[in-house]
Amino acid sequence: MEKVTKKAVIMAGGEGKRLKSVTGDLPKPMVPLLGRPLMARCVDWLASQGFTELCATLRYNPGPIMDYFGDGEDFGVHISWRVETRPLGTAGGVKACMDLLGGGDFVVVSGDAACDFDLNRLVAEHRASGAAVTVALAENPSPLRYGIAVPDAKGDIRCFIEKPDWGRVVSDLVSTGIYAVSPRAMEPVPDSGSFDFAADLFPALLARGERIHGARLPGYWCDVGTPGSYYRCCVDALEGRLRLPGIAPPEGEAAPPPRPGLRGGARAERRVESADAARLMRFASAALMDCGADFSDGLTVSGTGCSLRLSPEPGGGAVTVETAARDGEFASELAVALEDLLRGLENNTAPAD
After folding, report:
1. Residue 352, in any domain of the structure
2. What is the pTM of this model?
3. Residues with Cβ < 8 Å from 112, sequence gap 6 or more?
4. 220 with 99, same domain?
């Protein structure tokens, strides 16, 4: 069987005006993250998941970026370059790469963001949904700088609200700018002029009756757009909340061994961010103690035909909910109910002793 090459577009043309106090004239994708440029961390992340055919879109000060990466051979990938002589917008820049992307699905990522999402999982959910585009979503308690996504019960996005003020905030789910894309989604993008994903392409696709799916992926994502977010990202990488390929866990923290999944039937998974995951697990343990909870591998409860597990992510920034049941719909409903329980416990005070 012929091996399918996994392809990705890296959008790396931004100037990063808000980061000028950190970057100076350095292109934003070349800002160091633990001694290695942000875009190099991005390429490492893509390569570690098998995406080896890359096309990068550049505009602001492209020379240092192209000189550093060359054709990508030293990074275990092949990189082609598209340098914009005039602004094409995010979708327009990707359209300029279509001659290299062929007829298959591909992913789009930002060369100046830090992330450790499972992109293969994103692509798998995209293909299962049948949507034209699948958007990786992240929870953000202060979403004003981002595009809010409003998905329905099936995960299809009904509308986007770009950079709202607080009066228009209707959700904490934001678009990360990471997409799985089917080639037909690029048909409305003109060959010239500026055309953005959020402002132009997504409304055009929805108007054509195409579906845009939202995927909530476990893991870390940070838009390194301000000095404050850059500082937090560096600290998160140092403390292990952001997992970087080739970077060992913090001193004293062993890399966790692979965990076996719950046995039996269909599975579902949810993720609940927490300011103190260990404390949240204490509340959950108290709430589920009388349900026969087992504490040998996170918090697990097994019943007739179904099972569940609650466990903190490494770094303690979130709790993962896993469920398994003979019936897939029940597994999903159980996962949602547990997510609601955890959010209630996170938002309220400790249970009475």
Report:
1. no
2. 0.73
3. 12, 14, 16, 28, 29, 31, 38, 39, 224, 225
4. yes
Specify the number of domains making up the chain: 2
Question: Does the residue 289 lie in any domain?
Answer: yes
In terms of residue numbers, what domain contains 273? Answer: 266-347
Strand 6-11, strand 106-110: pairing: parallel
Q: Do 221 and 96 fall into the same domain?
A: yes
Question: Do 224 and 186 sit in the same domain of this protein?
Answer: yes
Task: Give a yes or no: residue 318 inside a domain.
Answer: yes
Q: How many CB atoms lie within 10 A of CB 331?
A: 24
Q: Averaged in consecutive runs of 10 residues, what is the pLDDT profile of the chain (353 residues)?
A: 76 87 86 93 96 96 96 96 94 95 94 93 96 94 86 90 84 93 96 92 95 93 90 91 81 60 78 88 90 87 88 83 88 90 81 44
SS3 sequence of 130-148: CCCEEEEEEECCCHHHCEE
Parallel/antiparallel/unpaired status of strands 36-37 and 32-33: antiparallel
Cα–Cα distance, 267 to 256 (Å, whole number): 22
- Tokens for 231, please give them: 């500082």
What sections of the chain are H helices per DSSP?
20-23, 38-48, 63-69, 89-95, 98-101, 119-129, 202-207, 227-238, 277-288, 328-347
Closest CA relative to residue 213, chosen from 134, 275, 145:
134
Q: Are 116 and 167 contained in the same domain?
A: yes
Rounded Cα–Cα distance for residues 5 and 47 (Å): 12
Would you list the DSSP string of 220-237?
Answer: -EEE--SHHHHHHHHHHH
Q: Is residue 227 within 8 Å of residue 21, measured between CB atoms?
A: yes
Is beta strand 133-139 parallel, antiparallel or unpaired with respect to 78-83? unpaired
Amino acid at 298: G
